């Protein structure tokens, strides 16, 4: 079953058959879903081999008559559109450039039965943040140097008796990362091999003691960076 098929079935659960008769003319809810998906596809931008960013802020413009009909659906329409676009982005491998928002408004310049979608990215700027992921939790890396170890003076503390107090460090310049062992007792491993120093590509997993850590590079909007 396609995404639009799923949307239509979800919409059928949200409105009764009597109300559905009002859509015999004018815009159809599924057309709004198609327009949103098309806008996300058109504006998607490849920023690296593994990362595709698409806008996060969508404005749907309808004729006043169509807007009035859509508003009669209440929150159900917005929830279905939000779920559809989120699932579409996940399927396509897109990352939203900020929190997803969808708004619908009337525009007298839009003809009945048509839909216009405008999009933009929140703050319109995306930067890249290096993080270390441990048991699903992400720890941002400082620009320059981040020390990892068992000691309370480490920048990232791990509860692992097999690690040293200052076990290893990651050097991050905003684009590249280097892992360096700090003379630890049990060593630092990348792909099962002990290393003193090694470059870290995104999604590389390394081991300190019995703890597995993964280096990732994630998109961060200006708004998130200030939070």
From TrEMBL:
It comes from the Bacteria. The keyword Phosphoprotein applies. Residues 146-195 form the FHA domain. Keywords: Phosphoprotein. CDD domains: FHA (cd00060). InterPro entries: Cell_Proc_Reg/RNA_Proc, FHA_dom, FhaA_N, FhaA_N_sf, SMAD_FHA_dom_sf. SMART domains: FHA. This is DUF3662 and FHA domain-containing protein.
């Amino acid at each position: 079953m396609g995404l639009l098929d799923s949307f239509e079935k979800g919409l059928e659960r949200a409105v009764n058959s009597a109300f559905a008769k009002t859509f015999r003319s004018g815009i159809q809810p599924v057309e709004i879903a198609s327009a949103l998906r098309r806008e996300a596809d058109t504006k998607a931008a490849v920023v690296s081999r593994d990362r595709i960013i698409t806008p996060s802020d969508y404005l749907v413009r309808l004729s006043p008559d169509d807007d009035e009909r859509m508003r009669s659906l209440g929150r159900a329409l917005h929830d279905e559109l939000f779920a559809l676009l989120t699932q579409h982005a996940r399927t396509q491998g897109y990352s939203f450039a900020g929190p997803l928002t969808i708004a619908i408004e009337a525009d007298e310049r839009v003809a009945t039965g048509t839909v216009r979608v405008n999009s933009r990215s929140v703050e319109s700027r995306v930067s890249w943040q290096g993080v270390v992921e441990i048991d699903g939790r992400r720890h941002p890396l400082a620009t320059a140097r981040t020390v990892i170890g068992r000691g309370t003076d480490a920048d990232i503390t791990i509860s692992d008796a097999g690690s040293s107090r200052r076990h290893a460090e990651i050097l991050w310049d905003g684009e590249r990362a280097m892992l360096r062992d700090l003379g630890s007792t049990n060593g630092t491993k990348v792909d099962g091999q002990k290393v003193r120093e090694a470059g870290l590509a995104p999604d590389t997993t390394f081991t300190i003691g019995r703890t597995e850590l993964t280096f990732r590079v994630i998109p961060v909007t200006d708004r998130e960076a200030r939070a």
